[in-house]
Inverse folding.
């Protein structure tokens, strides 16, 4: 009787361990698929962020060029204005 009961318990434990092993394999397979999808998402995010960063840096250069142009225009106005003031001062004398 004890031997039969021991055999049944060993058989049930073996079947149980077999099911747990199969379940672990299936879970690891799902984890692998999830990691692969996550890697694809990160790759596409990298591509998108690069695509967004390039125009933003170009826009920054564009705006700095406009600011420098405005500064140069003000300098020219100052030079022309001081030149006109010299002409006005020279004609009054």
């Amino acid at each position: 009787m004890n031997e039969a009961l021991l055999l049944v318990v060993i058989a049930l434990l073996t079947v149980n361990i077999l099911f747990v092993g199969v379940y672990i394999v299936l879970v690891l397979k799902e984890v692998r698929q999830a990691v692969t999808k996550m890697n694809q998402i990160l790759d596409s995010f990298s591509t998108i962020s690069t695509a967004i960063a390039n125009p933003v840096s170009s826009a920054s250069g564009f705006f700095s060029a406009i600011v420098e142009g405005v500064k140069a225009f003000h300098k020219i106005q100052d030079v022309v204005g001081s030149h006109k003031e010299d002409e006005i001062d020279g004609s009054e004398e």
User: Anything to note?
Assistant: Helices lie at 2-92.
